[in-house]
Specification:
The chain is of the alpha/beta class and 321 residues long. The protein is built from nine helices and 14 strands. The protein has two domains: 165 residues, 3-Layer(aba) Sandwich (Rossmann fold); 142 residues, Rossmann fold (3-Layer(aba) Sandwich). The strands form three sheets. Strands 10-9-8-11-12-13-14 form a seven-stranded mixed beta sheet, with helices on both faces. It has a five-stranded parallel beta sheet with strand order 1-4-5-6-7, sandwiched between helices.
């Protein structure tokens, strides 16, 4: 498809309007969001009205699958349907946080692969392309039959770490075995060592013991995860590396899901700082926490949108994991 001369437009759902505005601020070709009514009727059904013409435009819809996830996904699908019926040239969904990402396989009979179902729903609703950030599993891209650009928060995290630490002073730590590849990628690019905290479970959500594999004594630990939800694993791992002699402990987690008592756990933990991105707006408890800081990914997403719109290479955005 040749998009020569096509106007670029940004529409935001209600989940993360601040991120959408920041993306616009970083795009010369699109200085403001499309005027759209996003609300609910009295019975709480979603209400969508696009109040300006997007005919023939290259449209990007910014939405996040954060709480309430089901509401925000329905809202997204209705926006897509409205755009499809408005004769847009192309519709790209910027789904900063992909919901149901952890339900990406059948772990026992008679349960859904929810991530696949969400992918189908979005595709059928009218999306031509997806831009997302740090999918829980890279293979989730295969659930879509349309192009998917999975951006990495490491694009901004690694530069932030480099500005503050020398390689010989830090060690990258994965809080569980599942994040080993991510930790290896960071350690390689930063030129430092790595370690893993191995956890043994006694049941669902119950950690029996955590064991450190590697040496962290005398180092500042940089702990990584794609999301922080209950913060149980993350805070438990911080105790393990603290007991092993770490002189400082920080975390970089892409998606601040932060459910339940997670913020309290972080406030009472050994972390000096937990850095997250703005893929999900912080709840009021996280905003008030002195240990939680946000690093915006709006410039990275804006650059991806610009490259997609101009059909220009964007491989530099993926040279991170």
């Amino acid at each position: 498809m040749n998009n020569s001369g096509r106007d670029l437009r940004i529409i935001s759902g209600s989940s993360n309007i601040k991120l959408a505005k920041e993306i616009c601020n970083n795009l010369e070709a699109c200085e403001h969001l499309v005027d759209v009514l996003v609300g609910t009727f009295n019975d709480e059904e979603s209400r969508i009205e696009i109040n300006e013409s997007v005919r023939g435009c290259d449209v990007f819809v910014v939405q996040s699958g954060c709480r309430p996830a089901n509401h925000h996904i329905v809202e997204l699908c209705l926006i897509l349907d409205a755009l499809k019926r408005s004769n847009c040239w192309r519709i790209t969904v910027v789904l900063a946080y992909f919901p149901y990402a952890r339900a990406d396989m059948k772990i026992k009979p008679q349960i859904p692969i929810s991530a696949k179902a969400i992918a189908d729903i979005i595709s059928v609703s009218g999306a031509d392309r997806i831009i997302t950030v740090d999918l829980h599993s890279g293979q989730t891209q295969g659930f879509f039959d349309i192009p998917v650009d999975n951006l990495y928060a490491s694009y901004v995290f690694i530069e932030h770490i480099r500005e503050r630490f020398k390689p010989e002073d830090i060690i990258i730590v994965s809080p569980d075995a599942g994040g080993t590849n991510r930790a290896k990628a960071y350690a390689k690019r930063l030129g430092c060592g790595m370690a893993i905290v191995y956890k043994k479970r006694s049941g669902p959500g119950q950690i029996e013991e955590m064991t450190l594999i590697g040496e962290v004594e005398g180092k500042t630990v940089i702990m990584l995860d794609d999301m922080v939800d209950s913060a149980g694993t993350l805070c438990g791992a911080s105790e393990v590396v603290y007991d092993a002699g770490a002189i400082g402990i920080e975390a970089y987690c892409t998606h601040p899901v932060l459910t339940g008592t997670s913020v309290t756990k972080i406030n009472n933990s050994k972390f000096t700082k937990v850095y997250v991105t703005d893929t999900i707006p912080l709840n009021k408890y996280a905003v008030a926490s002195e240990k939680i800081s946000v690093i915006s990914i709006a410039p990275m997403i804006a650059e991806a949108i610009k490259n997609v719109h101009e059909d220009s290479p964007m491989s530099h955005l993926f040279d991170s994991e």
